[in-house]
Each structure stands twice: as C-alpha cells, then as structure tokens.
Amino acid sequence: MLYIFKKIWYLIFLLLLSTYAFFAKTTDWVIYPFLFRYFRFAWYVVIMGGVANLAGRFIPRKFNFESGLFAPHKWEKNGKIYQEKLKIKSWKDSMMDMSKASEKAQSKDVGQDLSSKHLYTLLQETCVAEVVHIALIILGLSLLFFIEWPYNLFWEAAYLVFNSLDIIIQRYNRPRLVSIYKRALRMEGKGK
Questions:
Q1: pLDDT tens-place string over residues 10-65
Q2: Integer Cα distance of 100 and 4 in angstroms
Q3: 192 lies in some domain
Q4: Cα 130 to Cα 96: distance, rounded to the nearest angstrom
Q5: CA dihedral 48, 90, 111, 133 (to 10 degrees)
Q6: CB-based burial of residue 91 (10 Å sphere; 0-12 exposed, 13-18 middle, 19+ buried)?
Q7: How many structural domains compose the chain?
C-alpha cells in the first residue's frame, strides 16, 4: 500500500479532496466542477482497478507468448520501436507496477533467478497484464456514459493513454524476456 501512495500520492490527495467536496456539497469552491468530475472518474478507476487486479489473479497462465496477440509485430522491431519513438526506458519505471504493490502478485523483476521456470512465469505475467489492460480499455468506454459531455472525452483519453502505456511496457519487455528464456532453456538442455 505504501508503494501505491508513493507513486500516486497527488492523485490520492485529489481523490480525498474530491470526495470531501462531493459529500460536503462545497459548490462555492472554484474548482468544484473539476473535483466533481474527478470524483466520479477516480472512483471508477479505483473500482475497475480493484476488479481487474482480482480478475487477473484468476486468469490461467497458459498463454502462447510467441504467437497471436502476444507475438511481436514486425513494425515493433522486437520492442525497439518503443525506445526509438517513445523513449520508454526514461519513463517505464515511473509507471505503477501492481506486482510491487501487492504481496500476492508475482514480481516481474528478473533479478538473479534466470531459470527457465522463473522466466516462463514472468512471460505469462506479461501476457496477463496485457489482457487485463486491454479489458480495462474496452470496459473504460463506459466512461463516455458515466461522465457528462464533453468532460467525458478528457477522462476517457486519460484512461486510454495510461492503460495503453502499460500495454506498451509489456510489449517492450516481452521480446527481451523471450530471448533470455530461450537462452535459459538451451543452457538447461531443454531447448533447441
């Protein structure tokens, strides 16, 4: 929980302030219109994030990370496009990582454990994270109906951008993890 607070303390502060403004009906505040809309958006994100986190724990870890949805596209250049165009290395560590926020979550750090079993688990977790964020984007379309026009477009765009950035991180990391995984399999005598 402390990890979450350190990462997004300013958003939590806004959530508390907006919750107070909403229930106290402090409509004379200049920023009340913003806080009212933020209140609805922030609680939506908290609830959806909690549901997604729980759902992610029950998703079977049986993805084929080298084909279909999870395979790198040619244009991604095995994840290199994200560094070239988006400079992902400079910002990816500042994004929220639920594996660091929850003791029950699988750590995504390779660390010293370069066994094929550990790397396989990490690869499965990148697929789960991608599926969860894709589902959040699709479900997030309901924000268009939850917050009034035209403010819903701003909040929807913010929700889309942040979930897309999390997907990009998975797509950036996966090809490198696959390469390390295959090397580990060869060293363990299990691969080609």
A1: 677 777 777 777 777 777 777 777 777 777 788 888 888 888 888 989 999 999 98
A2: 9
A3: no
A4: 14
A5: 20
A6: exposed
A7: 1
